[in-house]
Each structure stands twice: as C-alpha cells, then as structure tokens.
From TrEMBL:
The lineage of its organism: Bacteria, Bacillati, Actinomycetota, Actinomycetes, Streptosporangiales. Keywords: Hydrolase, Protein phosphatase. Transmembrane segments: none annotated. Its EC number is 3.1.3.48. This is protein-tyrosine-phosphatase. Belongs to the low molecular weight phosphotyrosine protein phosphatase family. PANTHER family: LOW MOLECULAR WEIGHT PHOSPHOTYROSINE PROTEIN PHOSPHATASE, LOW MOLECULAR WEIGHT PROTEIN TYROSINE PHOSPHATASE. It comes from Actinomadura graeca. It comes from the Bacteria. CDD domains: LMWPTP.
C-alpha cells in the first residue's frame, strides 16, 4: 500500500501544487511507493490550473507540472498518512476540520522538515508578488524535501 501525502494551502494554485510536484519528482527519482497530491482550504480556485508563475518557477527548476485546483474536504482525512499545511492558518483550518486526534496528529507544517527554517515555519503566499516571491517559495519547499523524504521513508518501513 502506498504512503499518501497531501499538501494544503489557501487556493491550491501556488504553494501546494508547487510542493506537490517537487515531492513527486523526488519520490519518482527514488522509486518510492508514494502518492502525492494537493488541495486548498478554500473554494476560490476550484477547477483552475496552477498559477502560471508557479508553473514557470517549477519549469525553470526542471520540474514537471500539471494541476487542477480542488478544496480539501473533511472526509479526506482517512486517505492520507501525512497532511502538510503550508502555513499556520492552513494548519489551524485543517486541525479544526479533523474528526479525531489521530487525524490531527497527521497534520504537520511543511517547514517542520527543514532544520534551518528557524521559528517562522510559514511558507509565504506569493500570489500578490512576482517571480522572486515564487522562486523563494520554491527554495523553501526544496529545503524541506530531505527531511520530508526521511519521514516518508520511515513511514514506508513502518507500514
């Protein structure tokens, strides 16, 4: 059975699809049995493609991208082994939706996996910014990947 990971941000067009495709790249490279997807806490962009600036940042860094935005639903908690919020607001929203302690324990902040992140674990929303803001988000996502992959490998061994 695959290990299942999802990333959650606000509208599912910038941060979470970026994190999704970076992780997809790494698990594919390692041949890990992992399913990766993403969603948003709100309905604003459901059915839309990823933001073109997200796609451009991913492509500049050599990642693929294909995406249709969707909203995280409360009945999805059982689908995932790890639910990764991109900022504290998403973390609070997800925890308030969680049906029980087990579900709440599977919700983490992505930057918890970056040992150099410091005290601020939020990945800032680049939506109202420019290329540099999207590139910064990509750098933050990439910095969390080694620790996240370690967590996923441990989860696969425990299964």
């Amino acid at each position: 059975m695959p290990y299942r990971v999802t990333f959650v941000c606000t509208g599912n067009i910038c941060r979470s699809p970026m994190a999704e495709w970076v992780l997809r790249h790494h698990v594919d490279e390692e041949g890990l049995d992992v399913e990766v997807d993403s969603s948003g806490t709100g309905p604003w962009h459901v059915g839309h493609d990823a933001d073109s600036r997200t796609v451009a940042a991913l492509r500049r860094a050599g990642y693929r991208s294909a995406h249709t935005a969707r909203r995280f639903e409360a009945d999805w908690f059982d689908r995932y082994d790890l639910i990764l919020a991109l900022d504290e607001g998403h973390l609070r929203a997800l925890r308030s939706m969680a049906p029980d302690a087990d579900a709440r324990n599977r919700i983490r902040l992505l930057r918890e996996f970056d040992p150099d992140a410091g005290a601020d674990l939020d990945v800032p929303d680049p939506y109202y910014g420019g290329r540099a803001d999207f590139d910064l988000v990509l750098e933050m996502v990439e910095a969390a990947m080694p620790g996240l992959l370690e967590e996923i490998r441990a989860g696969l061994k425990a299964a």
